[in-house]
Amino acid sequence: MLHTVALPDPTILMTEEFRMSLDLVLAFRGAQVRGIVEEAQTSLHERDWSFLVAAEGLIAAAPPSHLLRGEVTGPEGVADAISRVEPEWRLDALMALDDYID
């Protein structure tokens, strides 16, 4: 079971610094960022998520705001920002990124 809650505004999970720097990266290297997000989503399905079974409080809970933070200077920075998100919230962060970049 993976956790996710639909968000009407994907920027809720991003700090302003992250979003502004992401906009610049997307303008010049958007295809690479899309590839990183897609790869990260695919890798979630290969992970052992058994630790979430004990995390009952996460079911139907909205993710914390500002999961994606810090300045990103390229696609690698986006990948680093994704890896810093706690595993139980990573799918939410990836879905917000996916919504934002499309």
List keywords for this structure.
mainly alpha; 102 residues; single chain; 0% strand; globular
Explain this structure:
The chain is mainly alpha-helical and 102 residues long. The chain has one domain. Helix content is 50%, strand content 0%. The protein is built from three helices and no strands. It has helices at 16-44, 75-84, 90-101. Helix 1 (16-44) crosses helix 2 and helix 1 packs across helix 3. The protein starts with 15 loop residues before the first helix and ends with a helix.
Strand-helix topology:
Blueprint: H1 16-44, H2 75-84, H3 90-101
Helix pairs in contact: 1-2, 1-3
Helix content: 40-55%
User: Could you say how many structural domains there are in total?
Assistant: 1
Total number of beta strands: 0
Unreliable spans are: none
Order of helices and strands: HHH
Spatial shape: globular
The structural class is: mainly alpha
Give me the Rg, rounded: 13 Å
| Oligomeric state, counting identical vs distinct chains | single chain
Percent of residues in beta strands:
under 5%
How many strands, what sense, and barrel or not for the largest sheet? Answer: none
How far apart the termini lie comes to: 26 Å
Please give the count of helices: 3
Mean pLDDT: 85
